[in-house]
Design a protein that fits this description.
11 strands, alpha/beta, 235 residues, 8 helices, two-stranded antiparallel ribbon, single chain, Carbamate kinase
């Protein structure tokens, strides 16, 4: 495998599949098997998953919910998704640990960096829930932060598009995909990869990002094997 330790960032929306809300069981099962494939290949795997399929703190303000309260509600939504993914992985005999940035001792361990690294070294998948535990930070920021803390080799941003394009490929059919791009080029061209806080964290800590289509079967393993899948943001 090209990478020894990775952090996979999944959006909550990705779990919806063809639904308009909640969790699509078929999509959840697919993701579990994709993750199992790289774990079986010896890759130490950590995961951060969003909660946008259930609740988004940013949207809460429109309904009269104060932003900080809304963000905490969003963190709880990530825990629902994290527990669902944990259950799907353990159903196919993948050993997992769920760690939360907010204390929930009945369902998850607290986030402890050294403990997380030890789990990874033992071949367990570590799922980080509840974002950073702080309002005003996205799960992209949580992914960057946790990846740096566990000394991951790369962040894998699993999306529904197959990389970074010159423009939004869903709106502009003439948009072309980059196979490689530097952090400076992303800044200069104003491309959207992650939110600015998350992206800057990766840049400052020399952590590459690979953006790829998680919904295409086998893509995750192909990335691990070093195939040119998606777009890599490097230095």
């Amino acid at each position: 495998m090209k990478y020894k330790r990775v952090l996979l960032k999944l959006s909550g929306e990705a779990l919806m599949g063809e639904k308009q809300f909640g969790i699509d069981n078929d999509r959840l099962k697919q993701y579990a098997y994709e993750i199992k494939a790289i774990v079986d290949a010896g890759v130490e795997t950590a995961i951060v998953i969003g909660g946008g399929n259930i609740f988004r703190g940013v949207q809460a303000e429109k309904g009269g919910i104060e932003r900080t309260q809304g963000d905490y509600m969003g963190m709880l939504a990530t825990m629902i998704n994290a527990m669902a993914l944990q259950a799907a992985l353990e159903h196919i005999e993948v050993d997992t640990r769920l760690q939360s940035a907010i204390e929930m001792k009945q369902i998850a361990e607290p986030f402890i960096r050294r403990k997380a690294i030890r789990h990874l070294e033992k071949g367990r998948v570590v799922i980080f829930g509840a974002g950073t535990g702080n309002p005003f930070f996205t799960t992209d920021s949580a992914a960057s932060l946790r990846a740096i803390e566990i000394d991951a080799d790369v962040i894998l941003k699993g999306t529904r598009v197959d990389g970074i394009y010159t423009a939004d490929p869903e709106k502009d059919p003439s948009a072309t995909r980059y196979s490689k791009i530097t952090f400076d080029e992303v800044f200069q061209k104003g491309l959207k990869v992650m939110d600015m806080t998350a992206f800057t964290l990766c840049n400052e800590n020399k952590l590459p990002i690979i953006v790829f289509d998680m919904n295409k079967p086998g893509n995750l393993l192909r990335v691990m094997e070093g195939e040119e899948v998606g777009t890599i943001v490097e230095f």
